[in-house]
Amino acid sequence: MGGEWNAVKDEFVDGTIPEQIQRVAVILKSQLRSFSRLGAGGKFFTSPEYPDFTWYEAIVNACAHRAYGNGMSNMPIFVKMFDDKLIVESPGAFPPFVNPKNIYDVHAPRNPYLMDAMYYLKFVKCAHEGTRRIREEMRRLELPEPEFKQDETGFAIVRVTLRNNIKQRKVWVDSDVAEILGTQLAHTLTEDQKRCINFVAEHGEISVSDAQRLTGKTWQTARRALSTLVDRGILLHEHRKDLERDPKARFKLRGSSKD
Questions:
Q1: Mean pLDDT, range 97-121, rounded to an integer
Q2: Which residues of 168-187 are buried (b: 16+ CB within 10 A; e: fewer)?
Q3: How many domains does the chain contain in total?
């Protein structure tokens, strides 16, 4: 999580290739989020962090086109999730005749028999449309185009990077929170308040120190932002009333809010 690799959740997946793909898809689906923002006419527009097809196809391609020979059969595929991007790393270089510049136009499977099996099982299509559709789906949600890169770190790996629009997402409201707050109330929140609510929706609670790190403001400013949300009936302040400053104090979402 975060902008740099700092694992807060680590899962190992094995099994047959179809089992691995399906299991990783379930894990990723549980971690990715949907966000809502006010669109035309004051209505909330809900959008996934990434289009489902893009990350799913990146995982399928990693399994289908990775290198299994030359001592690489036991090397894992890595799927790394950051605040601003999702990375899929697979062992081996690009297949013959394929490079980042022609990847949308050249069809040259490294493992043709595996591709045949994956095609039969309906995991892949053999018309190099997968990478093209990844690009199209990212464009459709106004996200950056996918990045395909080969790195040499003692051995070759292919890295596929999907980037989200984190700068814009900071002012979006988590779709679940928007449902709780309602359009009218959510529209009145400041950017910092929205970010704090998104944090609570994801983590269940927030402290003043969390809010300070999240917003980059002073401790006092962060506390005022949270206190305002308490006053408006959005957050509940759990703390010891006999202490002026309870280090274990937390703010949580109320079940419903006051308009």
A1: 91
A2: ebebbbbbbbbebbeeebbe
A3: 2
